[in-house]
């Protein structure tokens, strides 16, 4: 159990290291932080903190930096999330809500805002299609042999495909078929599609019915691979920890494995609210010197996706925590408004 003085020294080390990215010595703490004790006393406290695993010495003759254990204590006990002014909350909400007619663009905007406000790598896991409801089907003639099939899913996801057909369809016929298919499938989720319903549509509507089903089935198969949106990867070069090109290449290579990243963000977001995984708590060796801050987002309280920020363990946790919470809440509010 840390006493009050050790806690003050640990907080000073973490605050200073987050700001400067330089190992922190006792003289620096004595000079910059008014702890009311001498450098010698601070050195003794630092020795105890090192012995108990809260700080480490990265190089001989260097100062100290926080360990994963030190950061964990900081996040769980010392950190106070930065308050977000109401005008900033409203601005973020408006920017996300501006894309409320198309969920894919809305999620892309959320990813961009996450990266912009944290200066780190931002990740948003999109809603899985298997939980989305079919809202509308539209068939539009492009020319005599091609028909555009548009599938609108709730909330706001649009899928489309161009179909070639030997039969000619006039606009009125396509409109009627669109209405019939919409009436038959509206409110049905991907996971509720039955083989009997698939056979009926294929039999009744021929090539066009088969095209609609092809989109449904192919998207259902693809929905097993969650779609993710990444932003801010280039910002990693601004972090001192990634001056080593080999390390940076490894990190960027991992980001290309979207299935791995999706699984990571989803696994770290098993419970609602903001979660922080630090260093070796992350089950991927390549990012044991990173932290990941995640949160779920929902529609009417039902979790449908997750967001996250990834960067060095020396991140500004207070700011990142607040931004992740703000973006997740804004996403949830906008998406919930869509279904009302």
Compile the SSE list and pairings:
Layout: H1 4-20, H2 26-32, H3 39-51, E1 55-56, E2 65-66, H4 68-78, H5 86-97, H6 103-118, E3 121-125, E4 133-141, E5 146-154, E6 157-164, H7 171-185, H8 195-222, E7 228-231, H9 245-256, H10 258-267, E8 275-278, E9 290-299, E10 302-312, H11 317-339
Antiparallel strand pairs: 1-2, 3-7, 3-10, 4-5, 5-6, 8-9, 9-10
Helix pairs in contact: 1-3, 2-3, 5-6, 5-11, 6-11
Q: Which structural class do the helices and strands define?
A: alpha+beta
**Continuous helix count:** 11
Average pLDDT reading:
86
Give the strand order, joined by hyphens, for the main sheet: 7-3-10-9-8
| Element-by-element helix/strand order | HHHEEHHHEEEEHHEHHEEEH
**What overall form do the CA principal axes indicate?**
elongated
Q: How far apart, in Å, are the first and last alpha carbons? A: 50 Å
Radius of gyration from CA coordinates: 26 Å
The first-level CATH class name of the largest domain: Alpha Beta
The proportion of residues in beta strands is: 15-25%
The stretches of 5 or more residues where confidence is low (pLDDT under 50) are none
- The total number of structural domains is 3
Q: What about the largest sheet?
A: 5 strands, antiparallel
Q: Which superfamily, in CATH terms, is the homologous superfamily of the largest domain?
A: GAF domain
- Number-wise, the strands total 10
């Amino acid at each position: 159990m840390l006493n009050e003085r050790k806690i003050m020294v640990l907080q000073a080390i973490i605050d200073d290291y987050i700001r400067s990215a330089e190992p922190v010595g006792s003289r620096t703490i004595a000079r910059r932080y008014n702890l009311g004790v001498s450098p010698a006393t601070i050195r003794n406290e630092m020795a105890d903190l090192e012995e108990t695993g809260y700080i480490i010495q990265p190089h001989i003759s260097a100062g100290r930096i926080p360990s994963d254990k030190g950061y964990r204590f900081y996040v769980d006990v010392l950190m106070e999330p930065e308050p977000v002014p109401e005008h900033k909350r409203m601005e973020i909400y408006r920017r996300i809500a501006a894309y409320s007619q198309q969920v894919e663009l809305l999620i892309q905007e959320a990813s961009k805002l996450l990266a912009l406000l944290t200066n780190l790598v931002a990740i948003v896991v999109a809603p899985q299609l298997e939980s989305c409801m079919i809202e509308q089907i539209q068939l539009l003639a492009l020319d005599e042999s091609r028909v555009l099939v548009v599938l609108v899913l709730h909330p706001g996801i649009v899928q489309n495909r161009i179909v070639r057909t030997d039969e000619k369809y006039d606009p009125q016929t396509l409109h009627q078929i669109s209405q019939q298919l919409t009436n038959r499938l509206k409110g049905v989720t991907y996971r509720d599609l039955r083989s009997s319903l698939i056979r009926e549509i294929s039999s009744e509507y021929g090539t066009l019915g088969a095209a609609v089903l092809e989109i449904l089935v192919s998207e259902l198969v693809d929905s097993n691979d969650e779609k993710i949106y990444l932003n801010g990867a280039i910002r990693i070069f601004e972090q001192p920890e990634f001056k080593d090109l080999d390390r940076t290449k490894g990190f960027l290579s991992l980001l290309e494995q979207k299935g791995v990243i999706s699984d990571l963000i989803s696994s770290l977001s098993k419970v609602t609210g903001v979660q922080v995984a630090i260093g070796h708590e992350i089950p991927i060796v390549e990012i044991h010197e990173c932290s990941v801050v995640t949160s779920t987002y929902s529609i009417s309280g039902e979790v449908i996706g997750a967001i996250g920020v990834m960067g060095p363990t020396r991140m500004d946790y207070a700011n990142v925590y607040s931004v992740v919470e703000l973006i997740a809440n804004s996403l949830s509010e906008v998406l919930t408004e869509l279904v009302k």
